[in-house]
Amino acid sequence: MTFAIYLAIFFFLIITYIRIAQRLQIADTPNQRSSHTAVTVRGAGIIFPFGLIFPAIFLSKYNHQALFLAGLLLISAISFIDDLRTLNSKWR
Questions:
Q1: How far is Cα 37 from Cα 30, in angstroms, rounded to an integer?
Q2: What secondary structure letter does DSSP report for 91?
Q3: What's the pLDDT score for residue 64?
Q4: Is the CB of residue 64 less than 8 Å from the CB of residue 24?
Q5: What is the spatial distance between Cα 14 and Cα 17, in angstroms, rounded to a whole number?
Q6: Measured between alpha carbons, how far is 73 from 45 in angstroms, rounded to an integer?
Q7: Cα(88)–Cα(58) distance, rounded to whole angstroms?
Q8: How far apart (Å, rounded) are the C-alpha atoms in residues 46 and 15?
Q9: Half-sphere exposure of 83 (CA within 13 A, CB side)
Q10: Which one, of 44, 45, 74, 69, lies nearest residue 58 by Cα?
Q11: pLDDT per residue rounded down to tens, the chain (92 residues)
Q12: Pick from 43, 44, 50: which is nearest to 69 by CA?
């Protein structure tokens, strides 16, 4: 039952993020180097680390993994910032 609740929460979070990203125009427009053909929302992967953080907060048996979770948050934050920024043309 707990997993069903988590699934519902994360489904809601992803749908909410996609709507916010569409309003803020956080999207990748396809170009000649793209593998997709339609406008795609960027940064939705920021939701997935919360799949480990929520159980660690609410279930005490996962509290010993604080360093792993801190590293996960750091890597997730860097990846999210990378998704939001566009590559500069001098790096191509």
A1: 6
A2: G
A3: 64
A4: no
A5: 5
A6: 12
A7: 41
A8: 13
A9: 17
A10: 69
A11: 677 887 888 889 889 988 998 898 888 777 777 777 888 888 777 787 877 777 776 665 655 667 777 788 888 888 888 777 765 545 44
A12: 50
Q: Rounded to an integer, what is the distance from CA 68 to the centroid of its chain?
A: 17
The closest of 12, 78, 1, 23 to 47, measured between CA atoms, is 12
Q: CA 44 to CA 56: how far, in whole Å? A: 21
**Taking the model in full, what pTM does it have?**
0.64
What tokens does 48 get? Answer: 């997935």
Name residues whose C-beta falls within 8 Å of residue 84's C-beta, 6 or more positions apart in sequence.
26, 42, 43
Both structure tokens of 35: 């593998």
Give the per-residue pLDDT at 90: 52
Helices (H), the chain: 2-23, 50-58, 66-84
Structure tokens at 14: 């992803």
- In total, the chain counts a number of residues equal to 92
pLDDT, position 83? 73
